[in-house]
Amino acid sequence: MDMRYNVDEIEFRLNEVVIKKLNKFRQNSSIVPESGGLLLGRTDIQGNTKIIDITVPLEGDIQSRFRFFRKSSKHKEILLESRKRCLYFKGNWHTHPVKDPEPSWVDMLSWKNTLKNCKPGESRYCFFVIIGIKKIRVWYGNIYTKEIKEANLIQEIL
Ligand SMILES: [Zn+2]
After folding, report:
1. 55: confidence class by pLDDT, cuts 50, 70, 90
2. Eight-class DSSP state of 48
3. How far apart are the first and last CA of the chain?
4. CA of 84 to the centre of ligand 1 (A)
5. How far is the CA of 135 from the centre of ligand 1 (A)?
6. Listed range (3-17, 102-116, 117-131) with the worst mean pLDDT
7. Contact status, residue 61 vs residue 72, Cβ threshold 8 Å
8. How far is CA 69 from the centre of its chain?
9. pLDDT higher than threshold 60 for residue 158
10. Is 88 strand, coil or helix?
11. Is the CB of residue 59 less than 8 Å from the CB of residue 72?
12. CA of 99 to the centre of ligand 1 (A)
């Protein structure tokens, strides 16, 4: 089942295949490092956004228990390649080694930076997903106002 979140007047959706992919990176044991990547998806005419695919840690990225740096240029290559499937950059995701994740100040800074570089397209938002051991939480930034808020979960897989 997809996971759906309320984002102001629109809906943000993580598709089932994406959730399955993300679940593999949950830091549910002490040896699992932090992971991250890009969110690739589509926005419909109403502004509802669906994440259809993600990039995952690649060779060249820096991973430790509490850190993930997306350093590989391959993420961008995959992003460009995804346009052929009509999938576009919608934000990014990363994991935290806690049950219920909260963004760190470093996350907030990096999200604000991402927002600055986001061009308004079919979506007025950029999305930031944190995968905790138990919970998946979503924040969204308004590309126009640069405001970042948390999205409310509508439905979750059991
Ligand atoms: Zn973080």
Report:
1. very high
2. -
3. 9
4. 30
5. 14
6. 117-131
7. yes
8. 14
9. no
10. strand
11. yes
12. 13
